[in-house]
Amino acid sequence: GAVVSQHPSRVICKSGTSVKIECRSLDFQATTMFWYRQFPKKSLMLMATSNEGSKATYEQGVEKDKFLINHASLTLSTLTVTSAHPEDSSFYICSARALGHWDTEAFFGQGTRLTVV
Amino acid sequence: GENVEQHPSTLSVQEGDSAVIKCTYSDSASNYFPWYKQELGKRPQLIIDIRSNVGEKKDQRIAVTLNKTAKHFSLHITETQPEDSAVYFCAASIKSSASKIIFGSGTRLSIRP
User: Fold this and answer.
1) Mean pLDDT for chain B?
2) Which end of chain B is more exposed for a tag (fewer CB within 10 A), N or C?
3) Does B32 contact chain A (CB < 8 Å)?
4) Which residues pair with B103 in a beta bridge?
5) How does pLDDT run across B19-41, given as a tens digit for each residue?
6) Distance (Å) from the C-alpha of residue A109 to the closest C-alpha of chain B?
7) Among B39, B80, B46, CA closest to B61
8) Contact criterion met (CB < 8 Å) for B43 and A93
């Protein structure tokens, strides 16, 4: 299957700093990537849809100024957690679908475990 | 927006028995329904999916059924094995420019030896 690579896999940062997470589709182009947040033993909560060349679409309740998304190319989307606080500690995971394939498998990155101290 | 409900939240079955997980969705426009398996600390992996023009799909020990009228779909795992132990998520997606996938709350499946 297609490969989605997410980096870093783990990051620890100090409260008040910003953290950038990268999501890359390695062998296919994705106009759309999705960012999810997963709390321990909970489901994947969709945060936002990242659109190549345009603004991201955020789900209700997700602060766009807090979670900055950039999708500069067909293979790369980034999520920046700005001014991180301990409550932002979580597992963040991205997924992507191949260009034009709306009803096929979405491939997931390996996730990023963020710990804010 | 779409809302997907999943139950049970936990399920324990004897090895060799069958396991069934059920989901309902709210948006009748949803037309793609994947099931993902997630092992601890790992990324979700697709195990089977079904599109709205099909009522049932089977892949070896795994099958999925879809009832569009009732807006519910189910995952069936037969002859369960220890390696089936994991968290399973159902999901729904609507054909659109976004095609976002909304997940159910997950079912933690444990297989008793």
Assistant:
1) 93
2) C
3) yes
4) B91
5) 999 999 999 989 999 999 999 88
6) 7
7) B80
8) yes
Beta strands in A8-111 (DSSP E): 10-13, 19-25, 32-38, 44-51, 57-58, 67-73, 76-81, 90-96, 107-108
The 10s digit of each residue's pLDDT in A32-86 is 899 999 988 889 999 999 888 888 999 999 999 999 999 888 899 999 999 999 9
Nearest CA-CA distance, residue A68 and chain B, Å: 18
Two tokens at A41? 């033993």
Return the residue in B100, B102, B105, B107 with the most chain A beta carbons within 10 A, the one to mutate for interface testing.
B100
Torsion of CA B20, B16, B48, A45, to 10 degrees: 60
DSSP annotation of A106: P
Whether the Cβ atoms of residue A49 and residue A57 lie closer than 8 Å to each other: yes
Helix (H) or strand (E) run with residue B1 in it: none
pLDDT tens string for chain B (113 positions)? Answer: 889 999 999 999 999 999 999 999 999 989 999 999 999 888 999 999 999 888 999 999 999 999 999 999 999 999 999 999 999 999 998 876 567 889 999 999 999 99
